[in-house]
Structure formats: structure tokens, C-alpha cells
Amino acid sequence: MTEAGMEVFMRGIPKAELHLHIEGTLEPEMVFALARKHGVKLKFPSVEALRAAYDFHNLQSFLDIYYEGANVLRDEDDFHAMTAAYIARVHDQGVVHVEIFFDPQTHTERGIAFETALNGIRRGLDEARAKLGMTSRLIMCFLRHMSAESAMQTLQQALPHKDAIHAVGLDSSEMGHPPSKFSAVFRRAREEGFLTVAHAGEEGPPEYIYEALDDLAVSRIDHGVRSEEDAVLCKRLAHENMPLTVCPLSNVKLAVFKRMEDHNLKRLLDMGLCVTVNSDDPAYFGGYLLENFIAVQRALKLTRSDIRKLASNSIEASFMPPEKKQYWLKQIDGFAVAV
Ligand code: ADE
Ligand code: ZN
């Protein structure tokens, strides 16, 4: 298959995005527009200067800029505009379903109401369903660098919004903040009927992945690429069909792997793990879902059958209802025969 043919195949095949921080879709142009709107002074003189600062050497160097960017989000329309811009970007990339993280504490810490963020994002997702037929789930993440008490307060704020929030997750600075720090919060979240996911094994060791599985009872591991260091863990992940939401461009930008050619996605896939491809924070890492597929396919020489597996894994690992999964898996089969 030619490179162009492969790109058509990757664009057209129906797929779900399962690891996307909505605050990570804020493009520099929108950061500046919202800063102007609200009279916020930025540390950078121009869009170009801000973009030039996206030269990260690890997770923390990214998070420092990412939280600074999120500071321009002030009212419900801002959250709506950010969500609508993301949906518009991925609509022609064959993305049929999105599961979106949001970080309420990033906003409530600055005095922005929980509902301001939630309602703006929700409105964007409702419109995506009504106008484009794109379905979604919302996942509320706790910031792991903050206390378990703060996470518990955030969970309390989510309780009146169970109709909108499907699952809880765990993100931000991984090292030194193991999943077990949040065992009680996640137990309470499960008792309240939320599904759970957690970032683990992005920078942190395999032990953090065990903790996410055993202490937080997660349905998916976000990233999880360091599972490769532990053969017993890999066997377990394969046996339990535990999905990993892998983010190739993010991993290279944050120096988890030096070059895309070094990425272990293909090896994890060949070990029988339920690997999916995702974009994490596309405005900061140089590409949305399709660009992640293209980058990793070229570097690792993935085949059509690998791409098909990654797409069907994304549907199977999603939180859509079983009949929707069956529908999209059939569409993938039909697409793979036709193209
Ligand atoms: N918040 C946004 N992106 C993140 C990532 N890749 N890891 C941890 N926290 C994040
Ligand atoms: Zn992430």
C-alpha cells in the first residue's frame, strides 16, 4: 500500500479517541484571543513565542506551560469554544466517539466554578452529538499533585452531575504521587457508580500500574508504556484484556521515548495487549488523532491489519454501550473490505 493510500485508510477507518485532555486542545491562537478578551497578561509576547516554548524535556516541563495556558479559561463560553474547536478538528479524521478528560481543580483553584467548566464542555459535546452524530463520554480527572482531601471535595462537587460525568481519572505529575494515594477517593467514586481510569506508567514505574489495577480498580490504564519492563505485568494486562491508551506524539515530546522509531507500541500490540492510539494534549504535542496514527504507522511500519486492530481496540475499550460497539465494529469490518 502506498503512503497516501495508507493515510486515506487511517483517516477513514472509524475510531474512538480515549485519552484527550480538553485543556490540552487549547491552541496558542485561542490562548491569546481569550487572554485579550479577559485582559489576562501572558508571559509570552506572541503566538509564535508561546509555540516556540513548547520544547519539553519531561512531563513537568509541559505541565507548567499547560496550567499557564488554562489560566485564560474564565467563562462558560470559553470552555464551549475550546470544546467546539476540538470537535471541528477531529470530525474529518474519522473520529466517531470521544472520551474527554477535564481537570476541574485547575479551574476551581482559580475561583472558576465547577459548573462553569462542566456546562461549557457539555454544551460543546451535546452539539457534536446533535449536529455531527459524534458521541462522547466525559471523564473527570483528579490532579495527583494535590491532596486526596482536595480530590474528595472535587468528587463531592461531581455528585449532582452523574448524568454528565461517566468516569473519574487521575492525571498531572506522576512521580511521587502513586495511585494508592487516592485509594479512598476512587473507592467512593466506584460506590457512587463512576467507572475509573488512571494515568500510570507514563513516567512512573510498573508498580504504579499494579496500584492502578489493584487499588483503583481501573477499567483502562492511561499510557502504561512502562509495563513493558515487567513481563509478569504484561501477561496480566493481556490476560485481563486491560486497555492501554497510548499517546505516541506525547511520548516523544515528553521524552518518554527519544524518537518515534524507539516507541514500544508495536511490541505491546504484538504481545497481545489491547493497545489504542490517542492524542493526549494535541495543541501542545503537534497533532490530533490522525497525526498520531500517521506518525506511529510510518515510524514503526505498522500494517493495515495493525491499524485495523488499533481502531477496533479503541471501540472495544471505550465506554459506549455494547450495541454501539457492535455497530462500529461492523462498520470497521465493512470499511476494511471496501478500502
Ligand atoms: N495532564 C495533561 N496531560 C497529561 C499527561 N500526559 N500526563 C499527566 N497529566 C497530564
Ligand atoms: Zn494524559
What's the quick description here?
This protein is of the alpha/beta class. It has helices at 3-12, 28-38, 47-52, 59-70, 76-90, 104-108, 114-132, 148-158, 183-191, 206-214, 231-239, 248-253, 265-270, 282-285, 289-300, 304-316, 322-338; strands spanning 15-21, 95-102, 135-143, 167-171, 195-200, 220-223, 244-246, 275-277. Strand 6, helix 11 (231-239) and strand 7 form a beta-alpha-beta unit.
Key words describing this protein structure:
339 residues; alpha/beta; 8-stranded parallel β-sheet; 17 helices; binds adenine; binds zinc ion
Structural topology:
Elements: H1 3-12, E1 15-21, H2 28-38, H3 47-52, H4 59-70, H5 76-90, E2 95-102, H6 104-108, H7 114-132, E3 135-143, H8 148-158, E4 167-171, H9 183-191, E5 195-200, H10 206-214, E6 220-223, H11 231-239, E7 244-246, H12 248-253, H13 265-270, E8 275-277, H14 282-285, H15 289-300, H16 304-316, H17 322-338
Parallel strand pairs: 1-2, 2-3, 3-4, 4-5, 5-6, 6-7, 7-8
Bound molecules: adenine and zinc ion.
Adenine is lined by residues 21, 24, 59, 66, 171-172, 199, 202, 250, 280-281.
Q: How would you explain this protein's 3D organization?
A:
- By secondary structure, the protein is α/β, with parallel strands linked by helices.
- The protein has one domain: Metal-dependent hydrolases (TIM Barrel).
- 51% of the residues lie in helices and 13% in strands.
- Strands 1-2-3-4-5-6-7-8 form an eight-stranded parallel beta sheet.
- Helix 1 crosses helix 15 and helix 16 packs antiparallel against helix 17.
- The chain is globular, with a radius of gyration of 19 Å.
- The mean pLDDT is 98.
- The structure holds adenine (ADE) and zinc ion.
